[in-house]
């Protein structure tokens, strides 16, 4: 087990848990020899270069995310571990099994879904997952209205996610109804799916930190099945400002110096009133509504300069209380 600044990762060799790391296709077909060895090496080098380029782009996207420093370090650790196990396999050394099911804990807007999508793409490039796509769902997508309905709904969602990631938001809601609730049936179906699809499915359960801890306590067998636990902290004021700047830059807008000061003041006010509201979703809502207010302001003018079209002024941040929710 490795402890990483509040993040817990276990590389278990647990009973009945097979490795998810896949032996590369070139290894399985080692007996097939290309008659032109130079051409074969050239093709392999080109594939390796292309793969590294794609992987480098994914890692660059991850590193470009504001904050999340401990999350990034953990993902780099997992990436390195998978690669080393593949090298050990090529050298016919014992390769440790790596179970990749995860628990994401944090408030809304802290980047959980964004990171899950990047992990799916990264694991596809590393040949851990065949497709690397992500299927997002919640309780309503898994729990049915009568006996047997829930198991079928859950199996259908699992089937869609095969080769990728099944991401269940607010997963703790599956255990809130007690023993007679159909949510327990969904949990049982998910546990079975984890056993039946050990090598072609990664399950990520996400939700508030304290609720997820309670959820794991309701079913002691779940904790050992999710060895990777990642905590997503709330963003600081400076990180929220950077997120706002980035969102505007992507859309080819920018704050004036005065508007940025106003934006900072507004964010601080929201955090003082609603300490758990200050995350990326709040910033996105504020930025998008400011852009619309700027559009209304400029629409009244017959023409607009490039600077005017790009600039967000303090008056564009004159948002109502409902805009800050």
From TrEMBL:
It comes from the Bacteria. SMART domains: AAA. InterPro entries: AAA+_ATPase, AAA_lid_6, ATPase_AAA_core, CbxX/CfxQ, CbxX/CfxQ_RuBisCO_ESX, P-loop_NTPase. Keywords: ATP-binding, Nucleotide-binding. It holds the Pfam family AAA_lid_6. Residues 21-49 are annotated as: Disordered. Gene3D superfamilies: 1.10.8.60, P-loop containing nucleotide triphosphate hydrolases (3.40.50.300). Transmembrane segments: none annotated. GO terms for molecular function: ATP binding; ATP hydrolysis activity. Residues 98-234 form the AAA+ ATPase domain. Belongs to the CbxX/CfxQ family. This is AAA+ ATPase domain-containing protein.
